[in-house]
Design goal:
- It is a single chain.
- Helix 4 packs antiparallel against helix 5 and helix 5 packs antiparallel against helix 7.
- The longest helix is centred in the N-terminal third of the chain and has 32 residues.
- The chain contains 11 helices and no strands.
- By secondary structure, it is mostly helical.
- It starts with 10 loop residues before the first helix and ends with a helix.
């Protein structure tokens, strides 16, 4: 009979990866709400409302990419376990091309038609105040959506520590940018600071490119 007791044979390897998941999760949660606290304390409730409306429209760009690319992690892990580097590269190429096209189109629509969309939803007065921030936030979440595939792929390749440290570094850098920009520029400064996060997370393409180049030569 198969034992019903849990197997602890791989506990060291599991804990080695999990230990980096905790700081990444806590850091992501903290950085995800820090902008609201900064705007609320520095700008006030009205500015926070305009920023929240713009965020609500722009955030689905990243949320869609994250949901769609979540299948990359197990598929990459399986292909790696089978030693099928060609399959890994095929998965990455299809994911990057497909999600990149969809999120780019979505961001372009939000940026170009931000004022009509906001006017239709909330009226012209609210649209005038929230539209400039929406353009910046659409660019920020579009950049962040581009790093989703490398994020999941690197997890599948066992690079949990690199992913965690990259996100913690990007979050800390963004927090400093928000604190520096909120006083002179208000919600536009905080929205622009989120672009810093999107740019910083693109560093995850570096080890992914190295993997791609290394195995392209072998295959």
């Amino acid at each position: 009979l198969t034992s019903l007791l849990p197997s602890l044979g791989q506990h060291r390897a599991i804990l080695h990866d999990a230990v980096w998941g905790w700081p990444q999760g806590v850091g992501g949660m903290a950085f995800g709400v820090a902008d609201r606290f900064i705007i609320g304390s520095a700008v006030g409730a009205a500015g926070l409302a305009h920023y929240a409306v713009a965020t609500q429209l722009a955030q689905p760009l990243h949320a869609f990419a994250a949901a769609a690319a979540s299948v990359v992690f197990p598929k990459v892990s399986r292909a790696m376990a089978q030693g099928n580097s060609a399959q890994v590269r095929r998965l990455l190429w299809l994911s990057l091309a497909g999600l990149g096209a969809v999120t780019t189109l979505g961001a372009a629509v939000l940026i170009v038609f931000r004022t009509p969309i906001l006017t239709l939803w909330l009226g012209s007065a609210m649209a005038a105040d929230a539209a400039p921030a929406l353009a910046l936030l659409a660019a920020a979440f579009w950049l962040l959506s581009l790093s989703v595939v490398p994020h999941f792929a690197l997890l599948g390749l066992g690079r949990m520590r690199f992913v965690a440290l990259t996100n913690l570094f990007a979050g800390a850098l963004t927090l400093l940018a928000m604190l520096a920009l909120v006083t002179p520029f208000g919600i536009l400064g905080v929205a622009a600071a989120r672009i810093v996060y999107g740019i910083a997370t693109l560093i995850e393409f570096v080890p992914l490119k190295a993997y791609w180049s290394r195995h392209a030569v072998r295959d």
